[in-house]
């Protein structure tokens, strides 16, 4: 009987021990469920925060693209202004060069004019024979007409010979 009592006492102790272990396990399970619930809530908050951050990143990305487009547009405009400036500057330089050339030509022409005036003053009065001038011009005009008629006669002769050979 004593053995049965010892076994009964031992069974009660085992029962109590197993009961407290089961109670401890249920407590751990409850704690784990609570932690899982907190983790799930934290995960949802993190997802919401991640979505908000993704939205912010996308907004910043769009803003950067707009800034890039605006920068490119401004650079293109700057390049066009630079080209216009260069062409205007080149035109101005060319005009200044031409103006300088005209100034130098004017000085040279004045020097020649004064030299010719001085030469004429040294020669005295110079008279042109108008009659001789017109005779020379008339002789030149007659020679040109004669030459044109000879060319025309030669062309007609060759045309006539071409028709004759056919």
TrEMBL record:
GO CC terms of this entry: intermediate filament
Alphabetical list of InterPro entries matching this protein: IF_rod_dom (IPR039008)
Coiled coil: 36-74
Record key words, sorted: Coiled coil, Intermediate filament
Domain IF rod: 38-161
Protein name from the UniProt record: IF rod domain-containing protein
